[in-house]
C-alpha cells in the first residue's frame, strides 16, 4: 500500500457520479439511480471509483424500514460493501494514495456513506486494502461475511478445533462464510436451512450435517448428531422467539451468538444455564484499527491458501440492475452473496 498523502489534481473540483438513492421506505422499486456531484475529498477523506458492490440483508432491511436505525429521507444512500480503486485523497490521508485497490469496511452510517454508486467518498478509516490478487467481484463479496463469521466465532466465541458449531440460516453470505471459518479452525459445522432444495449445496460447501428446519426439529437433530451432548457454539442469524429454543441445543456452559434478526419479533433468551449469550455486531471487528488489521490478515491469508472462497450466488452487470439484485435477495432462493459489477 502506498503511504503518500499527495492529493491528485481531481481534488480541485467536484466529481460527477451515479448513486443509488431512495426517497421513501419500501420494496426494491424505491431504489433509483441518480446523477450526483461529489465534493473533493476533505481532510481524512478518500474518493473511490467503485468496480463492484455486494448486497447484505441489512441493506434490504434498511431500505424497507426494518433495520435497527432508520434512513434519513429523502435522498438516503445504501450499501456497506464495495471493491474499487482510490481516485483522490484529502489532506492528512496517509494510508492510501490514488491507484490503490481498496474495500469499504462497512463501519459507517448507510444513509450517509452507502456505497451503492460508481464513485463514493469515504473516511480513510472506512477503507481497507484489497486482498492481493482478488478480482473486484471476489473482493466485494469477502469483507462483511468473513469479518462477521471470524469475529463472532473466533474472537467472541473462542472456537477451537473439535468444537461442534450450529449455523442457522446457513445459505446466507455470512452462513456460507461461517462454514468455511469453522472448517479452517478444525471445528465441525452443523447447519440449518429452511427447505430441502439447499441441502445438497450446503454439503458441497463443507457442512458436516444439514438440518432442514421446515421438516426436522433443529434441537432434536442437533442433539442426535452430537451423541446427545449438543453443540459448543450456536451462530444464529434468525433471532426471535426461536432463539430461546436454541439454548437446548448447546452443551452446558456453551455459547450462543446472535448476529441477525431475520425474525423481526423480539429475541427471547434461553433459560438453560450456565451458558453465554453474545449479541454480535460487525463493529466489534471493523470499528477499530487493530480489529480491521486482524480481520484483513485473516481474510487475505485464507484467500491465499484457499481455505476461504467466497460463495457468489449471482453477478448482475451494471448499477441499473440494483433493483433486480434486491428482488433476488428477497426471494431467499440464492446461496451466498449477490454482487453487482459496476464497471
TrEMBL record:
Protein name as annotated: Zinc-dependent alcohol dehydrogenase family protein
Record Gene3D superfamilies: Medium-chain alcohol dehydrogenases, catalytic domain, NAD(P)-binding Rossmann-like Domain
Keyword ATP-binding: no
Keywords assigned: NADP
Organism: Streptomyces sp. 900129855
Residue intervals of the Enoyl reductase (ER) domain: 26-340
